[in-house]
Model the fold of this input.
Amino acid sequence: MCANVHYGEMMDYVQDRGSAVDLGVLRAILNEYQKHGGLEKDFVQMNSTLYYLLMSHSEKSAFTIIDNVDQTNGLEAWRKLHERFAHTKRQRTVMSLAAVMKMQLPDDNSLEENFTMFERELDKFERATGDTLPETAKIGIVVAVTTGKLHDHLVLNMGGLDTYYKVRSTIMNYIKSKPLVTTKLQNIPLQWR
Done:
């Protein structure tokens, strides 16, 4: 098979089509494939192999979808699977925000790691949508997902925490100071605690 030809591009093309990959569409894809040095026999073999790969790795409703496609038309099988199972961009972004809002930042040794993951997911959401969440929304989400003394501290000091940067700085300072407080408490005799 020709190394210049990108099968992923063919699959992207057919999955974005609103209509079936019939013989006319296959002929157009083949012509484009041949312009890049591909041979017709390689294209036919690739299309058929794609069908059998999809068939052998599918079950239940996916298997039924593929089984209703001509056995030599892997690109149509791919298009139908994509049409049925692919999430829309809106679904992905809504679910990404829901995942951020569902996270918990427990006030324990995992706080720093979980906060890093929280910010990564928040950044991923903003990049996916191309929008930046309003400061108030970010602050509200972060306060909602924190627990324990950190949550209490954020709520009690909300008047001075009017930007996400300030809330983030407060959380980072809390994380940094936590080992110091724990060490000092261990050094205090039990009768004085």
Observations:
- Residues 89-192 form one domain.
